[in-house]
Amino acid sequence: MLAAGGLLILLAMGYAVSGMISDGDIAAPQGAGGAAEPDTADDEGQMAEGTGLADLLFGDDSDDEPAPDAEVGPDAPDGGTEPDILRLGPGDHATGSADADVFAIAMPAAGTEDGIVADVPRISDFEAGVDRLILEFDGLAEDAPEISLDSDGTPDATTVLANGLPVALLLGVTAMDLSDVEVQMTGSADPVADTTVTDTGGDDSIEGHFGADLMDGGTNADMLDGRAAMAELLAGGHDAITGGVGHDTIEGSAGNDMLVGNEGDDVLLGGSGADEIYGEDGDDRIEGGAGPDFLVGGEGNDSIWGGDDNDLIFGGAGDDLLSGDEGDDYLQGGFGADTLLGGAGNDRLDGTFTTGGSIFVTFDQDEGDILDGGDGDDTILIGARDIATGGDGADRFVTGSYIETAEVAGHVTDFDPSMDVIEVIFDPDLTPDPVITVEDFDDGTGANILFEGQLILSVSGAQGLDPALIELREVVPDRAA
Fold it and tell me: Where is the composition biased (Acidic residues) (predicted)?
């Protein structure tokens, strides 16, 4: 016999058992010792539960359904039956079966409050991708935890941490996916928690559920999927990250990341690599960060900052704010009343919009944009109703015969004839020998530029401009488009 406080061995052989120590004896649970019927579950159920002492829990090789009152029991991978459920407490050591198992740990366990790590529950045969670890927290007493994995602290093992403190030790596991860990907030109206998940390394696939999740991809090439939640996703290496239908925060890394906001008003932060970021639906905030980025706002009123380096920025539909920041950037507003700020560098700002086909038929159907080149030698493509400012540097203002009426002509605010250039594009098939004229403003502060007698651009600072200094460029549209 064992003294009180000794080791209790629970043999879970097809029945739900709850071991108890009384007067120092080893308790043989009814059903395992030959009784015809189990005490707490039918003969198809199986849940092993520790006692609060240092227990050994074993599952058998059958995927049985749990007891009717069992709180956990997700489907086994074979699609038809339920896995073994082994519920651990401080100091317990669990060994599952050869089939799919669920290991459940109710908090507080060792490490969650006082930092004591000696009594962390241990699991000796956890199979990544097959078994599941469920961490249960009191949803009425505490906030959602931050979950992380550490495979460096203990040789040939992975430590599962909640808020930085160990709650489970998986022996023999050196690589696992954070999707094998599930957080449940007991007593909460939303049993699927708003969770923080952090990975310390490895090429992982991390999936959120329906809470407001925070996911950290660690240092390698990960795929993070926030699904239908408000999520906060932090990339690690060269990551592909997709938000959900809520308001997501997705942060890239030093690698070359692909970030997709999906629906909702998202915050997408690219990090220092050459990132590809898509806001998609919603009023999104996109920051490319350092590196040459490709940024697309999608539908909605988006705010996009390119950051350092040479970026390609497309606003899409909606009234967008685009800022190239540092570097030689290309900015295109898309459909809507956009504001384009080139920032430092030699930028190209495109305030026009076309739905395809001949640019002189379907060109520039959007509303008026505000275009500001900032410092540097910029090229600004001016569409209907656009207001363009070149800023410092030798700038090129481009307009064209696509401006059909005087009412929609664009305007340049700061033309400097000593360094800036006005360029007019036209279709030579429609106008083989175009005539450009310049008419000064009555107040002498600028001039109107006319193409074949039609006003296409008004320019402050262009008074007295010689029409011969206006550059003409032929653009032959694709007639088949």
Answer: 58-68
Which residues share a beta bridge with 413? none
pLDDT tens for 109-125 read 444 444 444 578 999 88
CA distances from 204 to 60, 215, 231, 240, 368 (A): 30, 12, 17, 11, 45
Q: Which residues pair with 216 in a beta bridge?
A: 198, 234
The total domain count for the chain is 1
How many CB atoms are located within 10 Å of the residue 363 CB? 21
Copy the structure tokens of residue 371: 């275009």
| Residue 309 CB-half CA count within 13 A | 17
Task: Check if the beta carbon of residue 300 is closer than 8 Å to that of residue 319.
Answer: no
Distance from C-alpha of 442 to C-alpha of 215, rounded to nearest angstrom: 62
Asked if residue 150 belongs to a domain, the reply is yes
pTM of the predicted protein model: 0.54
Highest average pLDDT, of 38-47, 198-207, 240-249, 404-413, comes from 404-413
Cα distances (Å, whole numbers) of residue 395 to 380, 419, 460:
8, 7, 14
Upstream peptide bond of 108 is cis (omega within 30 degrees of 0): yes
Instruction: Let me know: does 329 contact 315? Beta carbons within 8 Å.
Output: no
> Which residue range(s) make up the domain with 73?
1-193
In a domain, 165, yes or no: yes
| DSSP string for residues in 360-398 | HHHB--S---EEE--SS--EEE--TT-EEE--SS--EEE
Let me know if residue 72 belongs to a domain: yes
Question: Does residue 438 form part of some domain?
Answer: no
